[in-house]
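Researcher: Batch entry, complex prediction.
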Amino acid sequence: MIAQARSMMGRWYSIPLLLVMWQAAVASGLVQSRLLPGVGAVWNVLVSETSNGALIYHASVTVSRALTGFVLAALIGIPFAAAMARSVLVRNLFEPIFFVGYPVPKIALFPVFTYIFGIGTPSKIAFTFLECLYPVVVTCYFGFSAVPTRLVWSAQNCGASRSTILRRVIVPAALPSIFSGLRIALPVAIIVVVLTEMIGDSIGLGYYITIWSTRFRFANVYAAIIVIGLCGLALDQAMLLLRRRLVYWEREEIR
Amino acid sequence: MPWPRCSQKIENWLIPAAVLALWEILGRAGLLPRYLSTPTAILAALWELAVTGELFTALAQSLYRVAVGFVLGAAAGILVGLAAGIMPRVRHFFDPLVSFLYSVPKIAFLPVFLLLFGLGHASKIAIIAFSGFFPVFIASRHAVLSVNRLLIWAAQNMGAPRRTIFFRVLIPAAAPQLFAGIRIGLAHAFVVLFAAELIGSKAGLGTIISYGEEWVRFDLMFAGILCFAVLGFAADRILLAIRSRVLKGQIIGTEEQVAR
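Model: Structure tokens for the complex:
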């Protein structure tokens, strides 16, 4: 019990240590408390803004936008990657778009998206979709291409139909790579939504950060940053849980 | 060129060429909304920016910010990441912090950085370094931990001093993963550069884009976007070229080689 508590301390001591240093720096007047409010001030704002629903409202806007774009990218990207891996024509047509386009910073296209889809939710979802589509398609494409041919052959030998092979052999074999693609895309979705909300919007956590920083109320900014971090952690954990359920035969080392 | 390879090349460029042609034709016919401009108008705007020299000033400023910021962030990420991989104490200090901060978009700290470092170069460099640090740190830490222990034991057995083990065994074995982290960090750096220049800036490619919007010169906006995209793409290709020089034999048959 004591040993367990000690090892917990050994693992997590840096966060309380940093909080203490933060508080000490603010209390001693080394940094302006307007720029870096004390731990207590941030905590108070976090509690009051959560209880009056403001943070919860903006967080739900941000998370629902991120998830919509992400789910759309998964629903379209995974079958698309499978088609690219199966058909030479589809691969030849789309390979340069995905592989040459992969390192291009697509964020530069966001202004165009706001003209096409307007400044509100649709442009954010469309842009999140685009940003998530690339990691999903590229990772799943490698996953589908790497399915061992002899698995497919032996299923054919046993007289399995094409749809059975797809459902029972190809998809399960590619599932680990599908999940690693999804796990790369999920934080991308949150980053992109917050970022585009900071560029221009009237709801969402990104907007919340910009509006309170222009009023020099940095306790609210830090509270929003903490909420974003918690949302990201929760979504990542949910993704890992889903992966353990669906890919129960293979344990992934958790970072 | 034999026919199958030739037809593959045609198929490869079919969709981009068709999109560009359609864009140009529909744009000239006035069937597209004005904000989409046309490819030839964008090239003309690019030429205009190049002649007045505006393009090169903006390009130099953006490049300076992203280069300095990224090098600082990646260097810190490699150093701290290697230290965290080698020394459990350092690892235990950084792990909780990084696992929390990693899921936060670093751009959320931009208002704080703007206030700390002002509207000029310093705040952009700082936030680019800050966001480039995390993926590089995670990759380096992971790279050291996943180095085959047998290699290190073998070197120790032959009496190699710690310095030699570090430079001749650990670093080469960890190098492929280090580069993977640096590549992700580079992509983050460009995203943050764009957002930082669009939200709070007085110079750089982001400003060309926002001026284009303000003056309703959509060809200028697209010219800025094009430059930004080419800059990011070129930086990634340069990194891959360095990587294949450094790693020589290590990347044969890996995903990255296929991706090229």
